[in-house]
Amino acid sequence: MKIGYARVSTQDQKLELQTDALSHYGCDQLYKEKKSGKSKDRPELEKMISQLRAGDTVVVWKLDRLGRSLRDLIDLVSEFQDKGVDFVSLQDGINTATATGRFTFNIFASLAEFEREIIRERTNAGLAAAKSRGRRGGRPKGLSPAAMEKAKTAKVLFDAGTRSVDEIAKILGIGRATCYRYIDGINNLD
């Protein structure tokens, strides 16, 4: 069965160009979505994937209509292949049922993996360079001098017993949870 998936990013955009092309290609069933590609919640896509069976073919008008990124697209097509489902992108000339289509898609997958490796190498090189200069990443341990003053003030006001934690937090311009952490933190330093 040929199953079409059409998606536009906003409610103002029209699906007709995609759905007409998918119908002309012979799709038996269409799933239509008006969601941004960046949205992680795409119920029609999830519904389509859950109903795929071996021998089906997922058809899209263009690659960017299916995946949010190259990595996302590769993961989806790999999931299709694991289920025995072929993939066709009409505008990009990709059909994983053919040797050329699989080759083209594997080139995309290799480029995505290469990109991830380059990013990892650059990150590691940057961390090593920073370490050689005596710098370490992450948030500095402990409170800043200004936060330490607020913590001491919170402790004094709390110990006096004349104000509630909510009042102390409001006076110091901090959240209630932060006020409790400050009070507990000063208690641990004593």
Task: Give the arrangement of secondary structure elements.
Elements: E1 2-8, H1 16-25, E2 29-34, H2 43-50, E3 57-60, H3 70-82, E4 86-89, E5 94-95, H4 99-132, H5 145-160, H6 165-172, H7 176-189
Description:
The protein has 190 residues and is of the alpha/beta class. The chain folds into two domains: 2-108, Resolvase, N-terminal catalytic domain (Rossmann fold), CATH 3.40.50.1390; 145-189. It has helices spanning 16-25, 43-50, 70-82, 99-132, 145-160, 165-172, 176-189; strands at residues 2-8, 29-34, 57-60, 86-89, 94-95. A five-stranded mixed β-sheet has the order 2-1-3-4-5, sandwiched between helices. The radius of gyration is 28 Å and the shape is elongated.
Give short descriptive properties of this protein.
190 residues, Rossmann fold, 2 domains, 5-stranded mixed sheet, 7 helices, 54% helix, elongated
